[in-house]
Write a structure and sequence with these properties.
Layout: E1 7-11, H1 16-26, E2 33-37, E3 43-47, E4 55-59, H2 66-82, E5 87-92, H3 111-122, E6 126-130, E7 145-148, H4 151-160, E8 168-172, H5 178-188, E9 191-200, E10 205-212, E11 219-227, H6 231-242, E12 247-255, H7 261-266, E13 272-276, E14 288-291, H8 294-306
Helix pairs in contact: 1-8, 4-5
Length: 315
């Protein structure tokens, strides 16, 4: 089907390489927009082409400084709205503040909900995101939304590498990710295990309590939505190896790699680290493999533009 003339894809400053990849997959040029800061630290955005009556998609990964990247979204959306765009969809490869999605302590915010309210208040018509930290975040949206899953891309890597079936066990690093990992295990036709752990305070430290499932003499694949400091994956790998796993790989949609995570992961007992390119490519290290989700986003954007089903993408 020919690409609609009314489809426009623009990018923030967070991850323009992914936006260019999406446009290449669709077969269109990336929209022309300038975003910069004035000397007083105020962010400014100006659309450099006509968007009147257009179906606009604005792609932004909120890499550090996260709050600046998010303000870019709000300001750009206001510019698109005032320029009479027909529909504005914000594409969030990584949803910011997603981990603050519940009141698990007294007197704390639910920032993931606040992010949604700010987006729709600014004039967003639709949100397209990938692998939200928790399913309930979809309930925070006050308008249409779609969640893409990186499972087809990530699982294909293991299937093509021959790491599947009885010799593999897909492992959830915590009980909260169990549903995601169960789906992944089904794709690999492998067994499934869960690490029962608890988080200690707010400083990204965790304590492993037990492992539910058999990992002995199997290749363990740790599956999560993101790798941040890498501590959870490194500690989990050590526990799995102590329980008899032959080797351990870790796979995640979002490779955030805060602080010196890439150095810690490279020095760890992990055999490999597989992520997608929802974040800009980090400092390369030999154990790292980065898979592209540009085509997945491109298919979703075309489906939204053509008013067809996104569900078909995952089949």
């Amino acid at each position: 089907m020919a690409i609609s003339d009314n489809l426009k894809v623009f990018s923030g400053t967070g991850h323009p390489d992914l936006a260019r990849s999406i446009c290449t997959e669709i077969g269109i040029d990336m929209g022309d927009i300038e975003i910069f800061k004035f000397a007083n630290d105020n962010i400014f955005a100006r659309i450099l082409e006509n968007v009147r009556g257009k179906d606009v998609f604005f792609v932004q990964t909120c890499v550090p400084p996260v709050n600046d990247r998010f303000m870019e979204i709000l300001i750009a959306v206001d510019a698109f709205r005032r320029a009479s765009a027909k529909r504005i969809t914000v594409v969030l490869p990584y949803y910011p503040y997603a981990r603050t999605d519940k009141k698990d302590q007294p007197r704390v915010p639910i920032t993931a909900k606040l992010i949604s309210k700010l987006l729709f208040s600014a004039g967003v018509d639709r949100i397209l995101a990938m692998d939200l930290h928790a399913e309930q975040i979809q309930g925070f949206f006050d308008g249409p939304s779609d969640q893409l899953l990186a499972e087809p891309v990530l699982s294909r890597y293991f299937l093509e590498s021959g790491m599947c079936g009885d010799k593999v066990v897909a492992v959830s690093p915590d009980t909260g990710s169990a549903q995601r990992v169960r789906r992944f295990a089904k794709r690999l036709n492998s067994s499934f295990a869960v690490i029962d752990k608890r988080r200690v305070g707010n400083d990204d430290k965790t304590e492993v309590i037990n492992i539910v499932g058999d990992v002995k003499n199997k290749v363990a694949v740790l599956v999560d939505d993101e790798i941040d400091t890498g501590g959870t994956m490194i500690n989990s790998a050590n526990v799995l190896l102590n329980k008899g796993a032959k080797e351990v790989y870790t796979v995640a949609t979002h490779g955030i790699f805060s602080k010196n995570a890439h150095e810690r992961l490279e020095a760890s007992n992990l055999s490999g680290v597989i992520v997608t390119d929802t974040f800009p490519r980090p400092n390369n290290f030999p154990k790292l493999t980065v898979l592209s989700v540009g085509a997945l986003f491109a298919d979703a954007i075309k489906a939204i533009n053509e008013e067809t089903s996104i569900t078909q993408i995952f089949k």
